[in-house]
Amino acid sequence: MSLKNIVREFRVKNKCKAIGRRGRSHIAPEGSSVSSSLSTNEGLNQSIWVDLPPELLLDIIHRIESGQTLWPARRDVVACASVCRSWREMTKEVVKVPEVSGLLTFPISLRQPGPRDDPIQCFIKRERATGIYRLYLGLSPALSGDKSKLLLSAKRVRRATGAEFVVSLSGNDFSRSSSNYIGKLRSNFLGTKFTVYENQPPPFNRKLPPSMQVSPWVSSSSSSYNIASILYELNVLRTRGPRRMQCIMHSIPISAIQEGGKIQSPTDFINQGKKKKKPLMDFCSGNLGGESVVKEPLILKNKSPRWHEQLQCWCLNFKGRVTVASVKNFQLVAAAAEAGKNMNIPEEEQERVILQFGKIGKDIFTMDYRYPISAFQAFAICLSSFDTKPVCE
Q1: Cα radius of gyration (the chain)
Q2: Are 367 and 379 in contact (CB under 8 A)?
Q3: Which Pfam families does the record associate with it (predicted)?
Q4: In degrees rounded to 5, what are phi and psi of residue 320?
Q5: What is the distance between the alpha carbons of residues 354 and 195, in angstroms, rounded to a whole number?
Q6: Which regions of 106-244 does DSSP assign to beta strands (E)?
Q7: Which residue from 164, 159, 196 is spatially nearest to 290, judged by alpha carbons?
Q8: How far apart are the first and last CA of the chain?
Q9: Prior bond of 372 cis (ω within 30°)
Q10: What per-residue string of b and e applies to 227-266 under the rule 16 or more CB within 10 Å gives b?
């Protein structure tokens, strides 16, 4: 090997080691500075890892992926995708979406629909002093311990017109200009209506009128896409009982839960850091008043509880996942009819709980979700339950 090739190989190895020393197993988002620098470096393609036969590489990643199904051991799967471009592409082919595998692996998994069968079980920890809410993967803090995986964090920000929750992939970085920023939840003054915004466009195109198209000079980091609305019913008569809520999922069609229905899942995060001239974008921006991006959106409603005479309280079957009575507890199911219109939803789907949320201890809550909503959408809906609603109770 010539001296020039030796120096080139040494530089590539040092760069890969520098990326690996960042603490957590990390995949540089598509389009980021790290990713672009690696992709333009010709020396990376000369690495010894690229020379592995594709059959051998596929077998290695298959064995790692099937053997590591729990965090933190699943970090090894993320590390495989961090080696080089060929390893990344092979790993993305092997790792299935949560809808099929029921596993959360990459950050993009938080924007993909959950599994169709068994729900993904998570818990939320609330910090009253800082107004921060953290979502972890696991049954509960007592059972998961140090093995719990941080998925998302949210910080409550007080506004003159209402509250706002900023959602991030990091536990302490809530800057909207950061690559960790994923979306926000905004409420009205009374806390009866919440709007969920995402910083990524829906994974499908939709033609909009010229008045709703975004300027080509607008940075994507400042764009917000209205993906859901959460409505709480006013309790004018001050009757006893849980809150009544309704969620309109603007980015999920009602056909997703009908027989043979599917939903398109995002595959990658879109680069948000560069400002460059692009053609007019075909998506719905929440900041510009965009609402529904599908003709017939999925509507979720809270499952009606029943009054227990012996316990003298309203009861729902949480299957042991909720242990403390609270007005915040709820279960969401698909609405079978809306405004007198039959949604043609199978009876089995009408009884299937898509999202359930409840209290198990002081500032500890469980969150279980399944198809067709994602972890981010489920987390945003649960965050709306934390906001005070004196007119709804």
Answers
A1: 23
A2: yes
A3: F-box-like, Tub
A4: 80, 0
A5: 19
A6: 120-127, 132-137, 149-158, 163-168, 181-187, 193-198, 225-232
A7: 196
A8: 75
A9: yes
A10: bbbbbbeebeeeeeebbebbbbbbbbbbbbbeeebebebb
Question: 373 vs 33, 78, 146, 324, 368, CA distance in Å?
Answer: 31, 24, 27, 25, 11
What does the block give as tokens for 99?
A: 């809808």
Partners of residue 184 on adjacent β-strands: 166, 197
Residue 350 half-sphere exposure toward CB, CA atoms < 13 A = 10
Measured CA to CA, the distance from residue 41 to residue 184 in angstroms comes to 36
> And the tokens for 333?
């199911």
The single-letter code of the amino acid at 159 is R
| pTM given for the model | 0.79
